[in-house]
Amino acid sequence: xxxxxxxxxxxxxxxxxxLAWQSAMARELPDFTAxxxxxxxxxxxxxxxxxxxxxxxxxxxxxxxxxxxxxRHFFGDRFPMPPGGAPAPxxxxxxxxxxxxxxxxxxxxxxxxxxxxxxxxxxxxxxxDRRELSAExxxxxxxxxxxxxxxxxxxxxxxTMGDSDTLRVGEWVAAIGSPFGFDHSVTAGxxxxxxxxxxxxxxxxxxxxxxxxxxxxxxxxxxxxxxEVIGINSQIFTRSGGFxxxxxxxxxxxxMDVADQLRDDGQVRRGWLGVMIQPxxxxxxxxxxxxxxxxxxxxxxxxxxxxxxxxxxxxxxxLEVDGARVHDSSTLPRLIGRTSPxxxxxxxxxxxxxxxxxxxxxxxxxxxxxxxxSRPQESRQARLGIAVGELEGAEREQLGIExxxxxxxxxxxxxxxxxxxxxGDVLVSIDHRAVSxxxxxxxxxxxxxxxxxxxxxxxxxxxxxxxxxxLAGD
Length: 474
Hints:
It contains 11 helices and 26 strands. By secondary structure, it is α+β, with helices and mostly antiparallel strands.
């Protein structure tokens, strides 16, 4: 009996301890109820309608003689039609999409994603109180995926903007949106990482979270625990089409800068340097005399751009912009892009193994075709393991270079192949010294050190890049 009493007491003690632990944990976890009650009225559902021409007839657009032979093989001249006979060619058809947004001013300005309202013929905004209003697209910026809408209304509930530059990994955050059309759904999580770079999004330092985001959440707000908006939910990483633990938000500081420009000027202007850049590998860092790989390596310059005009060169490694460190090549476009055209920026760079300071007055971002300093394509040195040939004058003029040799063949086991040099490359310089002929290349290579990486500048597919070459000792 005594043993049973002791066992029961032990179980009661364990149960009490567990309840106390659960209570303590509950007190430590954030409570989002007040945040949601206060912020929900400022979050909206956005639906769009786009009219497209239907293609109900699979052969619509083909002439009688243009129908693919493979279809004639199976169907002869009697092609399948939908029930009810042949459709009216080019029949208009409405397509709808859903997203989220939030109110940033009481007079009707609303932020969302550019992809939410892309190509929309009609934009309808539904508010927390079930009102529905048509919205006008003030402007959209595809590079940051930010769009600004305007509805004809006053005294709307607005959200408070936070400061996305002060975010820390591990902070609790919450999202409100309309996943799959379920209005004002709330999800929560933490900030997993900051300053994330995604493919094709060079101008946005994304906030990565584990907040559940699904189709329909795009354009909705991401909140901190104070109820301030610190981001716009924009993208997810998924293999299933739904949430898989990786979601990305546009920092609100970036979004508001874009929104202010769209509202004031109807367009977004960005600073432009006029360079093509590449990452700095460990071997390239050594070849440039750097202690560690960092910064953005200038592989080429637009000859008419600000960088070329103000003295930057191919082979310079940009380390800082106005005191802000360039951690890697993805950082530079953000720092330059957020600076107004016409502004003078102070650059710290590495050139010929020495740190230097240089000032550049930024230009205005041109069209994509103008912004790329690209030129059309098209280059036995035993120590390198390559065979080279001379360049014709027309080839040099086409590439915009004064010297260089064409790489005709590469020994698979040689130093050049290990560095990534390929047949067809045009070799322009080696160890910061220009190469004007095959004979000069041989002379330069004879003077190269062993077991130390040296930079080699190439032209490949019309673009300039650097590789690190390391010659083995004898």
